[in-house]
Amino acid sequence: EFAQGSLLRFIGEDAFKGAESLERINIPARVRRIGDGAFNDTTALEQVTFEEGSQLEMIGVQAFSGTESLQTIRIPAGVRRIDNYAFYNASSLVEVVFEEGSKLESIGDGVFDGATALQTIQIPASVSNIGKGVFRNATSLQTIHIPKLVQTLMIMTFDNASSLREVTFEEGSLLQTIAGGAFHQTTALQTIQIPAGVTIIGQGAFKNASALQKIYIPKLVTMIGVQAFANTTSLREVTFEQDSQIAEIGYDAFRESGLTLVVIGESALNRLNVNANLQNRAEIASGRRPIRFF
Fold first, then answer.
1. I need a labelling partner for 91 at 20 to 30 A (CA). Which of 1, 116, 117, 254 fits?
2. Which candidate, 61, 53, 110, places its Cα nearest to that of 81?
3. Angle at which helices 266-274 and 278-285 cross, to 10°
4. Distances (CA, A) of 157 to 92, 128, 239
């Protein structure tokens, strides 16, 4: 325990790393930064609290990584950055709460990777960066709401978030890119409304999303990557928005999907052919995958 009114401003790198008997800690209000690895592998840590009026601004790399007994945490409103792998393999973490008025801007790579018990998290509206693999292997997460300031869903953002059934985007979303593997292995996801500003759906973005039933491709999408929707065995219908700007559909983009219907403008399909994507016309139109034109 820290003394009441502690003047401590910084918890240093690896300060309590591997302190196996540490069960509770109350962070003094004046602390502005929790350093890299500060509580890494404190496997018995069950409770982390922040004094009222906390001035905390940053949580460092792997700060709480491996805290396998921690179940809930409340992040002070002044925190602007949570750095890479801060809660990596915090396998008992069920709930993350951000204080009202949160100023959080960035969630680094893999912050909740391996947080297999995580069920509840409301990402603050102020967040503009969600890193690579942030919710990878968060196998209990069921719903997520993406703030409008986020422009890119990085690679493997929700990889193997196997219980994720609902993804929503804030109105006016600025999202432009769904990167490779962003929703790979999200086997409970049945539907998703891709924001209107998206231009790229990356390689394997929805691969193995086996419950996905239909998808609407906004008109600004110009590229769908290799195997983007491969093994989406429940996918029956893909609709490209009228006046679609699609110019490239990668190899095996819909391999082993359940497609029975593709709705696409004839001019968009012709553009694919002109761009030497003849294999895509064959893939989309063959057998059980008829095309209906606008």
1. 1
2. 61
3. 140
4. 20, 14, 25
User: Which tokens is 186 given?
Assistant: 């999200």
Which residues of the chain, if any, have pLDDT below 50?
277-283, 285-290, 293-294
Q: Which residues lie across from 263 on neighbouring strands?
A: 239, 292
CA angle 123/125/129 to nearest 5° reads: 70
**Phi, psi for residue 261 in degrees, rounded to 5:** -150, 135
Pairing of strands 143-146, 166-169: parallel
Rounded to whole angstroms, how far apart are CA atoms 22 and 16? Answer: 8
Q: Determine contact, residues 111/129, Cβ cutoff 8 Å.
A: no
Closest of 34, 112, 114 to residue 79, by C-alpha: 34
Angle subtended at Cα 122 by Cα 120 and Cα 126, rounded to the nearest 5 degrees: 160
Largest CA distance in the chain: 73
Cα–Cα distance between 200 and 14 in angstroms, integer? 40
pLDDT in tens, 39-97: 999 999 999 999 999 999 999 999 999 999 999 999 999 999 999 999 999 999 999 99
Closest to 103 measured CA to CA, from 151, 147, 133, 169: 147
CA distances from 138 to 92, 112, 119, 198 (A): 11, 7, 8, 25
Q: How many Cα atoms are found within 13 Å in the side-chain-facing hemisphere of 268? A: 26
Euclidean distance between CA atoms 105 and 146, whole angstroms: 13
Number of CB atoms found within 10 A of residue 77's CB? 16
How far, in Å, CA of 56 to CA of 9, rounded?
9
- In angstroms, the CA 246 to CA 110 distance is 31
Contact 137, 111 (CB under 8 A): no
**Which pTM does this prediction carry?**
0.92
Q: Which amino acid is at 284?
A: I
